Amino acid sequence: MKKYLKYSLVVIGLVSFYACSNDDSKPEEIVEPAKEATIAIKLASEFAVQKYGVVSIDPEVTIENANGKTETYQWSIKVAGKDGVAKDSIIGDSKTLLFITPKAADYTVDFKVIVDKIVKQASTKVTVSETGKTYTAKALTLLDFLPAPGYNIDNYSTKEEAFEAAQQNIQEGGSVALGTFGGYMVTAFDHTVINVHGKRDFTVQMATGSTTVKYSPVSIAVAYDANKNGKADENEWYEIAGSEYHKSTTVKNYELTYRKPNASASPVTGTLPWQYDTAYLSWTDNKNGSGKITKTLTRRRVNYYPEWQTDTYTLKGTKIAIPVKDVSDGAGTAFNVGTFDWGYGGIADPTIDISWAVDKDGKKVHLPGIDFVKVYVPTFAAVGANDLLTAVFEEMSDINFKAAK
Ligand SMILES: [Ca+2]
Ligand SMILES: [Ca+2]
């Protein structure tokens, strides 16, 4: 082995492999030592931005003699630790840094390019100024809202009334019922929720169920207002790909059309005592499926269908299977309902990392932060006498938010 040590590291890797599988009788290969990689960085010395604003820091990086090695990037700032000693806090690992911070100050941002064992560093200064505005951790502005049918939705005769009531509930810390599959709401924060590197960023709290009231987790989509027009444009939305996203039972681009129940039709009683009207509310989907939602005896006086909606309406999203098990020997009076592991609202840990966002093809996207969040019900299931699985929104907040001093 000793005779090989004069060669470069690259060659050692290759030779070690041969040494394991072959005896020493193999003829020597003469390989020129590889040239060391060289890295050159051009980075502007100063940037300026307002707090919660995004500035793109885009260095020019030239690498020679990389010998097939891929470069890695690291952006960091110095942050005072609990002991008062400044430590490097990593804030990015892609070539371009989308810098955003909640605190007005001067930041020295360090940049490292690493190729194999060669490291090149550069730094720049970012001046972050105040905006004069005050901010809140919670998303309090409702932009859009449409519940799916459900026994617990708030009914109003016009869409405007329903919207106003939901907006007021959000601002006053109340709740908003979303019904069953596809029911949604879109809310806006008053600041861009920062996608903190390597950390979860916001949380979606939903009402928690009981023995008789069962709720569904909710799916989440996020939008960064990239064009700064204050609106969530169609091409700015990305879905949070949680634990169920890649499962074979998950149906992307699912569409469910609900039909308004005929108020004068006679109820079609089922065989079980709670089945008040088994033909109550018809639905069809875009997978050739169809069926009817049963009205339960307890809710017989409730209108499940939003009164302000016309004869039919369609809701869309990714449909996720949720385990639902009758534990009442088929009487339909008691159920165990499963949950999802991570990446959804209304689960044990409803904190979301913005880095889980994916595009329409399921490809990960990097967002510096998000301004808008859509919450929708991804399940379509009923739990017998306890009626439809629905979801009830309570609160959404930026978990890394620090109130201005
Ligand atoms: Ca994050
Ligand atoms: Ca926009």
Give an overview of the whole structure.
- By secondary structure, the protein is mainly beta.
- It has three domains: 1-34, no CATH class; 38-129, Immunoglobulin-like; 141-398, no CATH class.
- It has two helices and 25 strands.
- A hairpin with an 8-residue loop joins strand 20 (324-326) and strand 21.
- One calcium ion (CA) binds at residues 225, 227, 229, 231, 233, 236.
Fold blueprint:
Elements: H1 9-21, E1 38-42, E2 46-50, E3 55-57, E4 60-64, E5 71-80, E6 86-92, E7 97-99, E8 105-115, E9 118-129, E10 141-146, H2 159-171, E11 176-179, E12 184-194, E13 202-206, E14 219-223, E15 237-240, E16 251-259, E17 275-285, E18 290-296, E19 312-319, E20 324-326, E21 335-337, E22 351-352, E23 357-358, E24 369-376, E25 391-398
The chain binds calcium ion (CA) (2 copies).
